[in-house]
Amino acid sequence: MNEQSQFIETAERLNRIRLARALAILSPLKRDLLRLIPLLFHYHRAGYPGYNGSMTPSGIFNYAPSESELAACDTLDLVKPTQHQVKQTAIEGVYSMGSMASFGQNPKSDIDVWLVHDRLLTKEECRLLEDKSSLLTAWFAQYGLEVNIYLVHPEQFSKASISEDESLHPIGQEHSGSAQHWLLLEEFYRSQIRLAGKTVAWWPNAQRADELLYLGDVSHIPASEYFGASLWQLYKGLDKPHKALLKVLLLEAYATEYPDTLLVSEKVWQRTIDGDFSAANDAYYLLYESIEVYLEKQQDWSRLEIVRRCFYLKCGIRLSEFEQAKDWRYHKLRSLVDSWNWSQSLIDTLDHCEDWHCGQLQWFNEQLNELMLGSYQTLIQFASINKLNGSFRLSELGLLTRKLHTYFSADTQQIISLNRLWSDSIAEPDLTIIYSHNDNEYCLYRCPPYSRNFIGQRAVYRSRSKAKLLAWATLNGVSTQVTTWYEFANGSGKSEYLTTAAKRLIPFFESEEKHVSKMDLYQPWRYKKLILLLNFNSDPTAQWQGQEIMVDYMNANIFSLGRRQQNMLASIDIISLSSWGEWHCHHYEGELGILNALAFIIPGIRQAAEDISIEVISCSAKLKSQFERTVTGLVQRAVRLSLQVSSSSTLVYPLKVGKVQYGIFFNSKGMVFQDLKDAKAFYQQLTMKKVIELPRPDLGNEPFTKIPDVIQDFAAHGAIQYFLRQGEHGLDVFVLNEQNELNHYVQQGANVDELVSQVSHHHAFEEPDTSAQRFNLPQFFRLIRIDGRLRAIPFGVSVDEAEMDF
């Protein structure tokens, strides 16, 4: 027997063992569903799940259904197929990859399937196969089995000349797009199971052969790919951080050995060829082992402890439960845990992760995020010596970083959603807020306000904003309709407003639309929801002696009430949801709080047009209805006026606040307010065509008289934006920084793609303060004239994928 034949036989033996292990972990129904995956792609007939017309390609290389696969047809009430060979097979093989048949497979694991099609299939035939795959995914889901099916071109990894349309799906929730290439193939090699079709030639120095599937050589993965892969794993970590952390740390371990990296796929093969088919020769276990060896060398015991917990939780085996089925992994995991010297109480806590309360989840989330960001910084430093991977689409880099910015932002006003991981419900019957004078922040505890309850307790959330505590608890389901809120060291009457406000917030968070499309992320953010909490921190109405009915009768101004002309609005908290899916909480107080709050929200309201939900909640002891009615009317008027103005007009609305009459000026760029008693300033404002202008750029000798209006319309605080226009003498570049300060220059001898690449590389790797900026990479727009009007078109977006969720 020659070496190639020996390798094929050895690979097939490992494949049989892996398939048997996968089936052993699945329930009887899910075993039959798994067996049907290749059968339903080989036979394409009306009445079968996934049938979408006669033109869809079918047939798998060298496939014939086994007895167990035919028996699965009976179980699922499918007519058994006639025994015939498909003459022209369109599919080279069907393979699972990922955690199936490994230590990482647990009862909730999904199944990722690669469908490697014939290289001669047309684009339309591939589209039909994708449609069929989507129908099959929906059919499997009816039975509680999540099957994700990916079409793979047999040459997309190995052949540089393959077109972009054929080789890469656009990036999406389940497609890594151009973010990773060879590292994705390496994961496939180390974990694949052949369900049908050609044997995968995944061993080192494999030779091509007609009966084998050879996708490429992963022995020399380019360093630049680690950056894109780490971004992708961080993105996947938004849903499953414990799983993503293991993969990010594996990348970090790989990078430290570069260029002599010993890949997990190579370790698996070496043990296989040495005759080791034990549980220790498992792709997921060896992934953990590689990280363990790396962290032990670093003497990084704290990270290693979190990694061990993530690995244990991913396995889904509960060692504290005596009735736990003892599958092929059990004894290996038991010996591992014993070697880690874990206490029984820790094992019990991990085994009951579905019952974790919000404090435990918050702590674990913080640990995972800190570790993932630490690895990301390490990988950035590693990748910074290389240029961005040429195959990495820069538009996808922008999408990934912008999505990550919505979660890992250092903005203290942002309210981060709590990843519930495994917990079904984290609702609490009692929540108490305590103000820490030492730390100048509010602390949230999950107990009633009795001193004995706080012994040994850790605050589940902290913030300098009291409203942010309320919003965080309500957004994450910690506070529900039956939760009672307290404020420590204050009477029960003082705490009642917290409970009332929390209940009124619930519908706005429950109805939150999770949909964030690619186009949303390509464009400047805009408001989708605004919730205004009035007098939440301090309440002048508690000491007010007047009569509420007289305020209504006299149509009095609550911003300048009574003989003392007192502003009864002492504080205003703005809770907002943006089109990027970000929740923020901003606090304003003092005499001018209402005017400063309006000036803050108007730019985001203008970009939202009329598609915005606004709610006003008064937390004051008195004048509740008057506050809500007045502020709602004021905000609606501000929205109306800001939408009516044009680039050449300014609208003014007078409002008395305290003892001062203010003019509120609206134009196409936002809002400012001015004391109307200052006549000189007032007339200056009225005569100006634009009240609020972006700082004038230094245009040098360029013959521009003003900034294109479209740039000002797209301006967004907190974002770096490049507007690019190809001219006869070079590339016109307008740059808005995070403070909306504008610069302009002409780049000679450069095209749009080159400039986007250079700028992206600079911001990704060469910014001195990368930890602070992290994911705030620039947005790029092309300035193009359409039907005589200058438009800003997001760079790299196609119409087909613009509305795709991301």
From TrEMBL:
Looking at the record, the residues that make up the Adenylate cyclase class-I N-terminal domain are 6-203
| Keywords in alphabetical order | ATP-binding, cAMP biosynthesis, Cytoplasm, Lyase, Nucleotide-binding
Compartments annotated for it: namely: Cytoplasm
**Can you cite an annotated GO cellular component?**
cytoplasm
- Pfam families per the record? Adenyl_cycl_N, Adenylate_cycl
Which E.C. number(s) belong to this protein?
Answer: 4.6.1.1
| Reactions performed catalytically | ATP = 3',5'-cyclic AMP + diphosphate
Q: Which family does this protein fall into?
A: Belongs to the adenylyl cyclase class-1 family.
Name recorded for this polypeptide: Adenylate cyclase
Source organism: Shewanella canadensis
